[in-house]
Task: structure prediction
Amino acid sequence: MRLFEYQGKEVFHKQGIPIPAGKLAGSVDDVIEVLKKIGLPCVLKSQVLCGGRGKAGLIPFVRTEEEAVIEAERLFTKEQIPRLLVEEAVDIDREIYLSVTVDPVDAKAVIIASAEGGIDIEQLAKNDPDKIVKEPVDMTAGLSPFQVNDLVYRLGLTGDVAKQVKHIMMSLYRIFAVYDAELVEINPLFVTKQGSVIAGDSKLMIDENSMYRQQTYKRTREYYDSDMEFEAAQDGIPYLQFDGDISLMCAGAGLTTTVYDLIHYEGGSVSNYLEFGGPNYRKAIRAMELCLRNKSKVILIVTFGTIARADIMAEGVVDAIKRLNPDRPIITCIRGTNEEEAVRILQEAGLDPVFDTEEAVRKAVAIARGECQA
Amino acid sequence: MSIFIDKDTKVLVQGMTGREGSFWTKHMIDMGTQVIAGVTPGKEGQEVAGRPVYHSVRRAVNDYAIDAAMLFVPPRYTKDAVFEALDGGIRKIVTVADGIPLHEMVEIRAAARSCGAVVVGGNTSGVISPGKAMMGMFPYWIDRVYKPGTIGVMTRSGSLTNEVTSMVVRAGFGVSSLIGIGGDPVPGIRFAEMLPLYETDPETQAVVIIGELGGTMEEEVAEAIVEGVFTKPVVAFLGGRTAPEGKRMGHAGAIVTGGKGTVKEKVIALTDAGALVAERPRFVGDLLKGLLG
Result:
């Protein structure tokens, strides 16, 4: 779960990492009120989860109240941004990059830092890998002060700035550990002209599998890209929204992704990605209901289950058809444990089950194109 | 002989009395696996499929020689269960748990490596050598998938494994040993680390890798081939070629971020190393035919 910038900064503040003075604003009036407290110039930071906010014009720098009103109105109305983080503008001398994540090969945490922050770290890693320093951390032992001491000197930092960065590194690692983070990142970490070190941004991603013990954050609608993704998530159904014309109702992440690929190879397009396998294999009605709310032309069901029994999935599909009376064709390719019984159930219900994934995909693409009927 | 487990591997089942544990214990035994005993705290004295249940791993290994532990333990208790197996001297561990906290999985892998143990999983169906033995949850009775043969299979996926392996069988081959690495971002053991076992396995002629977008496991296989660690033919199928960046396609590990982990990069790495990459599951069978006749 990726947190919003302002949430990450709240965590930073609590754990002793300095952040710019600022406040959340939900309206133009709010923005003006915050300005009066923190003064001008300042930045209006759109609180959205996508990357590249700066390039998209979602973080305007404003010098006057007039400018602030114009920009805030644009962001709230035209860009539909629900909240802005209004922050004091900082006198920047230089920018540093700092993050903590896991290294799946070495089975350790790893601190990644660069004296050249503010940029795309992946690009820097490709073009100039020597400018990135890394420090592996044994997760059982935790991060030791000698490690951060060595790190700041490898970054070429000295004096009071080095001291502040060391403190921030220790705090950042603590956040990583306490919040079950997949990634915690400060990019950029500002060094101001006055010599203080302040987090310019925050990126805190909490591991999904640890959410049960990270109860502070509830997965509300704002964390999802679409209403449908949010709704499906309430039922524990993995769902992604696209804008093509074939609804996928498949089982297994790998198989669903492969069906998604095969549709594209055949020149088709996907309306929605939905998994109803694994723990969801008894949720055919709910899954089909979600598919039907798309403007797709056909629903494609492909499964090859192990624990999810084919006969139960077939029964579920037949039930769902009876209950929902779908207005578009349904192609089934249901295989796995008890597949013979599944075929019988589907045939009895008047369906024409397909047994080969590629054949099912071709059929769905043809129907979507209007070339044939189910 | 086969990889990881064979007919003589003595298996302890942790979480044996649970619904999944007891169900799959019976299937493992039916397939020929030597399940010796089980563990569920508080249930000592009970039996599952005629095998004794113990309170703890220490008590079980005190009575029996055990080679491998099969965990049917919920994700939040998996770290403890793995550590308990390691403490009991067991060096082969399979966990099917889906949802192990990331940091705990890092600790599990680190602990296993420090004592020379192998942990397969989580988020996997397990390990199977068709016709011999299995640890996990495989519908081995579907013979158009789990047919004994000479092709090693390693996979990050479940249903897709059935799809691709059925194409291997349709092309006239069968499976020597299938290892489900699992779909999590930090698996206990990685593709490249299992390759030396396939290299020395006389029953394996070639290896099929079922990968997907995200991570670097496929690139590590390419490296192992280039370095000469693995010299048998490799055919790979990778899901998510057309996946858009920034969307997690199901598995937690299956995401492209910052331009890293794309299938395109993986295909280039594998092809440059001399492996064959199938664009569709069906082509895996065709490519194997071309290689092995």
Chain B touches chain A through 60 residues (CB under 8 Å). Chain B is about 35% helix and 25% strand. Residues 19-31 of chain B form the longest helix (13 residues).
